[in-house]
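Exam revision sheet. Question 4 asks you to relate a sequence to its structure. Input first:
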Amino acid sequence: MFKMNIYIVNFFILISISFSFTSTVKPGIISQAFQIVGRCNKEHPLDMKEMEKAVKSFELPTSEEGKCFISCFLEGFGLITDRQINLDKSIEFNKMQFHNPDNLEKANAISAACKEELTTSTEEGCDFAIAASKCMLEKSKEMGFKFFQFHS
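Answer key, structure tokens:
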């Protein structure tokens, strides 16, 4: 139990860091992320090895529980609904993270490209969230852009 709590805390820290791109973050976003992660971990407990990979190297989970955790998280923020990327919510979410206009433009372009690419997706259930996450990572690499930027 103690080891699990360490990884959950690390995951929360990871989320907090990912939301701290600039000094201005929409109030309550970190609190909301903590609530969503807590709820999703209760509904879909992550395997500790998958949690560690997610925290240390942003590797997407491969277990059903791990995939459903990611789905729960993305749905919790409204980023995916009914097997679709919710572009309006994605743009709103991007605005909370990226205050540099160039970065915001890139993030929105990636969100739009993945929405378009996955419009005809046949992925079911939690696999759609993984497909959406993979798309975001691949498009980010293609554009030389990092969604997660850490500041000291």
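Marking note for examiners. The beta strands are 80-81, 84-85.
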